[in-house]
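Bumping with the actual sequence this time:
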Amino acid sequence: MNFPAFHFGIPKDGVPCGNGIYTGPDKDLGYPALAAIMKMKPDFFVGTGDSVYYDSLDAFEAKDITGMRRKWHEQLVQPRFVELFRSVPTY
């Protein structure tokens, strides 16, 4: 899950350039993969792998605890995450 790349594009020389940006009409809901997971009606969800990138090497990089919390907040308040966590036990 790469919030800055999904919403603003993959950075080039530390600046979001739009490459790789998600442009679907449902962008404000968050990652479409979460909708696919919900359709499967899972008994539980285990989030493995990279969830938040602190070292995005751009203006979004987290350099302290406040920045790290910001990263988690921006990621987990997206409507598809909220719905997943509301509906499916998560580890």
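The tokens above came from a reply further down the thread. The mean pLDDT is 88.
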